[in-house]
Amino acid sequence: MEYNSKRPMPTPNKPEGDLLQGTLDMLILQTLVLGPAHGHSIAHAIERRSDEILQVEHGSLYPALYRLEDRGWIASFQGTSENNRKARYYRLTPAGRKQLALETSRWERLVNGIGRVLRPAE
Amino acid sequence: MSWLRFFHRQRLDDRVASDLQFHIETETEENLARGMAPAEARAAALRKFGNAAFVREEVYRRNSLGALDEIWQDLRYAGRVLRQSPAFAATAMLTLALGIGGNTAIFTVVRSVVLKPLDYRDSGRLVKIAEFDSDTPFVPETVDFTTTYDLRAGSRSFENLSLEMRASAALVDHGEPELIDGLRVNYDYFRTLGVDMQLGRDFRPDEDQPQTRREVILTHGIWRRRFGGDPRILGRQLSLNDSSFQVVGVLPAWFRPVPHAGGNLVPEMYMPLGYALGESDACRGCQHLQLIGRLKTGISVERARSELNSVMAGIVRAHPGDYARGAAIAVTPLREYLVGGVSTAMWILLGGVGFVLLIACANVASLVLSRAAGRSKEMAMRTALGAGRARIVRQLLAECLLLAAGGGVAGLLLAWGGTAALAAFAARQLPRADEIRMDAAVLWFTLATSLLTVMLFGAAPALRASRVNCADALKDMGRTTLGRTHHNLRNLLVTAELAMAFVLVMGAGLLGRSFLHLLDVNPGYDPHNVLTFGVYVYGPRYQRKPEAELDYYRQALTRLRATPGVESAAMVSTLPLADFDRRGFHIQDRPLANASDAPFADVYSISPDYFHAMRIPLQRGRAFTAQDRRGAPRVAIVSESCARLQFPGRDALGAHVQIGGRDDKGEWLTIVGIVADIRTHSLDSRPNMEAYLPQAQDVNFGYNLVARTTLDPLRLLNAAREAFLSVDRTQPLFHPRTMEQYVAESLATRRFTLVLLALFGALALLLAAVGVYGVISYGVTLRTREVGIRMALGAAGGDVLTMVLGQSVRLAAAGLIAGFLASLALTRFLGTLLYEVHPTDAVTSAAVALMLAAVALLSSYLPARRATRIDPMTALR
C-alpha cells in the first residue's frame, strides 16, 4: 500500500476478487516460499491455490514482481522453463522471508478484527 | 526507485518485454494443450494477461525520473521554438550577454583586486603597521627604527616585524648606467612575506648590520632582463653606486613586491637594511621606514592593534619629548592597505553594472511578455489538450533557461575580451592590475548570474502566460484584449528601466562633474609643457662634494637653456604629485614645550629658476638667486598658507625658521619670499604648507629636472638628456615624464571609474531606449483598431501622434520620478569619489532628467509616426 501510482492502472476487464496492492505482494512472496518460480507459474499458483477465487490479471503481476525485486525481497535469475524456453525465475530472499512473516501477521490481525466486527457473538 | 535505473531503463525495458513475451507464449501453449484453436489460444492468453503495453509503460515510467525526463523534453521543445524565431532569440541573448558579460568582467576585476588574498603565503596574517599622530589627518605610512625596536621587544602578537625603505642605486655593470629601484629590508623580510628564493638564499641576520651589508637579492624580472637569466648569477659582484654588492639570491617569478600607496616605485633588488640603534637615521621621530608584520596564528588584527598601542603608550611615557601627544600605532591588514583606496570605486562599479543587468532583464522580460501575448492561442491549445499550469510554466521557463544559457555563454566570451581590455586599461590605475584574471570563482559567478536572470526575466511572464482562459483565447485572437494585462506589466518594466538608467546616468554625471571640477583645479603651477626626469648623482666625483654636484646641475641647465624650444629649466628635489618630503617647521621666537609638536611643511630644495619654470607666482619678497649660495646667509621661501597659518597677525617675511629639527645653537633661516600655494599630494587634497630652500644651501639626495618648453615637451627629451650626458656620461637619468602626465596619473583611478560608469550609463540608456521603443510600438499595435476608429471619426494625424507620445510622456515621467527618488537614496554611496559636487546635485539631476526624457520621446517617436499612418479602412476591416 506504499505503492501509489499517480495514474491509476486501467483494468479493462476487472476480474472478481480484484486484489489489493499489498495483498498481491504477500501472495507472491508466499508462493515463492515453496521455491523459485517464473511469472507465469506464480500467476497460476495463486489462482490454483485459492481454488480459482483469486483471479490475478496476469499483467498486473509484473510491475509487482519488479517492485519486490527493487526492494530486495525477491531476486531473479535466468533459467530454463519446463517448456524449454529461457525464462526469468524469481526466488525469495531472506529479507523477503522476513517481510512475508510481517505481512502475514498483519493480515491475520486484520482478518481477525474484521471477523469480530462481522460476527460479534463469537 | 534507484537513480541508476534511470540510465539503464532501456535495458530493463527489454527484460520486461522478454518476460511478458515468455508469459504469453507459455499461456498460449497451455491453452493449445487444453485443445483451443491456435488463434483462440493466443487471444485468450492476451485477454488473461491484460494490457501488456501498459504494463511495460508502467514499469518504464516507474524507472524514469519523471521530472528529469520532462525537463529534457521541455528543453528540446524550447530549442525548437527558439530556432523558429531567431530574431527574438538573438535579441534576447545579446541583451543578456551585455548584462552578464559586463557583470562577469567587473566581478573579475573586483575579485582579483579587492577580494582575492594577496599572493604571499597565509597573506591574511600580513599587516601594515605605521606610527601616526591622531591629532593630524595624515594617512599613517611610516615608522622609525628605534620605536620599531621597542615595539618588537614589547609585543607578543607577531611572528615577524620587518622594516623596509627605498634604496635606488645606479647599476653600471655593463654599458649604459641604469637607476635600479630597490629596497633595503630587514633580513627576515622575505620570511615575513612567506617567499622562498628561486635561486640562492635569503639574507642572514649578521648581514643586516651597518657596515656589513654587501649582499643583494634580485627579482626574477631584472635577473631575466639585465642578466639574461644567467643561472651562475649567484656570487657575482654588482657595482651599485660604486660599491660592490654580491648577488646571493633570486626571487621566484610569481613574486610581486608589496606595492606602496601612491608610489610608482617597483623595486627590482633588495639589500639588507643595516640600521642600528644610536645611528642618526635611527632616531625616534625619524619616520621614513615602512613596517610590515606577520601575525601569529589565531591573533586578530584588533588584538595586535590594542597590544601595540599599549606598548606605544609606554614608549611615549618613557620618551615624552620625542613623540606627539596623540602618537599611536595603526595596524591595517595589508590587503586593505593596498586596495582600500579603490575598493569603494570597485563596489560602485559592480553595483552600476548590476543595474545594467537588471535593465537588460527587464528588456528581455518585456520581449518575452509580448511574445507570450502572441502565443496565448498556443498556450490555450496546450491547456485544452491537458497540460497543467505547472507544465506550461515549466515549458516557458525552459525557453528562458535556454535564452539565459545562450546569453551566459556569449556573456562569458564578452567578459573574456572585456577583462583583457580592462586589465590593460587598469594597468597603471589600479593596484594589483596585473593579477586580474578569470578563475573558477568567476565562472560560478557567471553561472549564478545567468540562473538569476532566468528568475528575473522569466518568472513573471511565465506565470502570467500560464493563466489563460482557453475559451476566450481560442475564440478569437484578433479581437482579444488579453494584451492589456501584459501591457501593464510591460509599462511597469519600462518605468523601472528608466528609473535605473536615471540612477546610473546620474552617478556617471556626478563623477563627470567631479572630474571636470578637478581638471579646473589650479594646482598652483602650470603643468602644461613641462618636461621632467630624474637625475641621480653618485660616485667619488660627487661623494661629499656638494659643489661638484651643484656644478653638474648648473652646467647641464646652462646647456639645456641654450637648446631651442626650452624656455626655462630648473632642478627640484621632489616633484609635486610624484612624491613629498615632509619636515618639521620651527619658528625661532616660538619655542615649543614638545619639539615634536612642530607643524610639518612639505619641503622642496630648488635651483633659482624653479618658480619661473613652474610658473608658481611669487606674491611678496624675492625668489632665490645665484647669490644664495653656500656660506651666504641661509634663506627660505614659504607658501601663502604657511605664512598665514604660522605667522598670524605678523609678517612672515624676515622671520627666522629652521626646517627639519630645531637646534637653537644652529643657524636660522630668514624667510625672504612668499609664493602661492600648490597642491602637493593630489588635486583634491587641500594645500598643506610648503617651504622652499635654495639647492645650494641644502643639497638633497637626488633631483628632478623641470624644463618649460615652447613645444611638445617629449620632443625635447633627447636634447635634454644630451645636455646632462654631455656634462657627465656616467650618471643615470630616469623616469622621463611630462608634468601633465603626473597630473593625469593622479586622476587615473577616478578616470577609470568615470569611464566605466559612463559606459554603463550609456548602455543603460540604450537598453532603456530599446525598452521604451518596444513597449510603445507594441501599444500601437494593440491599439490599431482603436486608432482606426478615432481616425475614421475625424482624428487628425497630429491628434494620434499626441495620443501615443502622451503615453510615452506618462511612462517617462513615472520612470524619472522613481529614478530621481532612487538616486536620492543611492548616489550618496559615491561619497569620497565626488569632488565639490553634492550627491543630489540639482543641476545634474535636471540634466539627466532632460536627457532621459529626450531619449524616451525619441524612441517613441517612430512608433508614434507609424500610428499616424494607420489606414482606418484596413484597420477596421
Please specify the SSE layout and strand pairing.
The complex is a heterodimer of chains A (122) and B (877).
Chain A: H1 21-32, E1 37-38, H2 39-49, H3 58-71, E2 74-80, E3 86-92, H4 94-118
Antiparallel strand pairs in A: 1-3, 2-3
Chain B: H1 9-33, H2 38-49, H3 52-62, H4 66-84, H5 86-115, E1 126-133, H6 145-154, E2 158-166, E3 169-171, E4 178-180, E5 182-185, H7 189-193, E6 199-200, E7 215-218, H8 220-227, E8 237-240, E9 243-250, E10 269-272, E11 290-295, H9 301-318, E12 327-333, H10 334-374, H11 376-384, H12 389-426, H13 440-466, H14 470-475, H15 483-520, E13 530-535, H16 546-561, E14 566-572, E15 582-587, E16 600-606, H17 610-614, E17 618-621, E18 635-639, H18 640-646, E19 656-659, E20 669-675, E21 690-694, E22 703-709, H19 717-725, E23 733-738, H20 739-746, H21 748-782, H22 784-792, H23 797-826, H24 842-868, H25 872-876
Parallel strand pairs in B: 5-10, 7-9, 16-21, 18-20
Antiparallel strand pairs in B: 1-11, 1-12, 2-5, 2-11, 3-4, 6-9, 7-10, 8-9, 13-22, 13-23, 14-22, 15-16, 15-19, 17-20, 18-21, 19-20
Helix pairs in contact in B: 1-2, 1-3, 4-12, 5-10, 5-12, 5-13, 6-9, 10-13, 10-15, 10-21, 12-13, 15-21, 15-23, 15-24, 16-19, 21-23, 21-24, 23-24
